[in-house]
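Interim report to the steering committee. The following record documents the input for Cell division protein ZapA (108 residues).
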Amino acid sequence: MDTLLLKLMGREFRISCKPEERAALQQAVNIVETKMTSIRNSGRVVGLDNIAVMAALQIAHESLTGSNQDKPVLGLDIESIERKIEAIEQVVDASLNSGGAPKNASLF
């Protein structure tokens, strides 16, 4: 397992991933960062945790419905999406509570 240092909304996260999953994880980070920035810039949602939850919900919804015309449907089943959202929430909660994500937190 490799450790990848990610940055979302100015916060750093250390994530464990297999070397062959590194590129896909970076793409996922880019999608999440773009969505979170868009939500923050809209001014309708305040607070990193609220922005993260809204981004996760919007990404999951777009994945399930194929409503994002700019990106292909991710092809994940609902259970997989729910597990990934829970993992993201745990990392965000840990970061907010301790000032940083747990070392080697694995989202994927």
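The mean pLDDT is 79. The committee is asked to note this result when reviewing the revised timeline.
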